[in-house]
Amino acid sequence: MSALSKEIRQFCIDHHLKLNTDLGQHFLIDESVLYEIVEAGAITADDHIVEIGPGIGVLTRELICDAKKVTAIELDKRMIPYLRLFTEQSPLLEVINDNALNVAMPTEPYKVIANIPYHITSPLLRHLMLESTVRPTTLTLLIQKEVANRICDTKNASLLSIVVNLFGTPKKICNVPPKAFLPPPNVDSAVIHIDCFAEPLADIDTIDRVIKYAKIGFSMKRKMLRNSFATFPEGLELLSAANIEETRRPQTLSVEEWIAIADASK
Question: Of 6, 70, 164, 262, which residue is the least packed, with the fewest Cβ within 10 Å?
Fold first, then answer.
């Protein structure tokens, strides 16, 4: 058992702390994975880091060693005093007790580094990429392996990978087994890193249309586009105008081709 694992287990025992797995509370106890996350985040002394779901602060404690400021957003009010205790009341740490999906992101440049509750992965990406006035410069996320694979798959696109690739370039850093957590989750995990573009590949109105048509296309993922696009009046005309063959399947289209479909609908 690693020193970190022993420390966290003892901390939970000393404070009679029971984790709420319904909120995705699984504390990272593997030091090697912790360092992979921190290294991938490439933190500098000028960085403002936003962490989501810090729990008692296992990752937070590492972040405040390198960053200028860390804003930790924690939904579970019980965790706040433990978070402050575990991070030794660091003056570099701002704690917000709220749902991250409802919190306005910083108006200055920031990075997101987080072990996020798996069930909020998609809505969180939407909040950060589409709903925030200032988008993060990078995201380093510990998420469910299946979702990570979908986001980073360059051969078979998904609705999620299309959305992410409108805003940045994702890559997988490492896989993470259940035993790396306390308590172990029922799924495998992975660390991904997303380098965000200075500007998205399209304006917000075009992005909304990309998502609209991609949702239609992926509603019949295993079928040719002519099946899903024939379900609304101008669908097949859009494919023709964008020079997309009706016999293509949605997972074969690039982000640029979805943008072409969106542009054809103007």
Answer: 6
Q: How confident is the model at residue 121 (pLDDT cuts 50, 70, 90)?
A: confident
Residue type, 148: A
Strands 111-115 and 138-144: parallel
Confirm if 73 and 100 have CB atoms less than 8 A apart: yes
Residue with tokens 């709220």: 98
Could you tell me the two tokens for 238?
A: 């859009």
Q: What is the pLDDT of residues 130-178, one digit of tens each?
A: 899 999 999 999 999 999 999 999 899 999 999 999 999 999 999 999 9
Q: At what angle do helices 159-167 and 255-264 cross, to 10 degrees?
A: 90
- The rounded distance, in Å, linking the Cα atoms of 6 and 13 is 11
Query: How many angstroms separate the CA atoms of 69 and 260, rounded?
Result: 40
Q: Which of 104, 102, 162 is nearest to 133 (CA)?
A: 104
Q: How far apart are CA 140 and CA 51, in angstroms?
A: 10
Bridge partners of residue 175, in order along the sequence: 190
Question: Which CATH number is associated with domain 204-264?
Answer: 1.10.8.100
Q: Edge-to-edge strands of the sheet including 138-144? A: 93-97, 69-74, 48-52, 111-115, 138-144, 189-196, 168-176
- Cβ contacts of 176 within 8 Å, gap of 6 or more: 30, 33, 142, 145, 188, 189, 190, 191
In tens, the pLDDT along 58-97 reads 999 999 999 999 999 999 999 999 999 999 999 999 999 9
For the chain, the structural domain boundaries read 3-196, 204-264
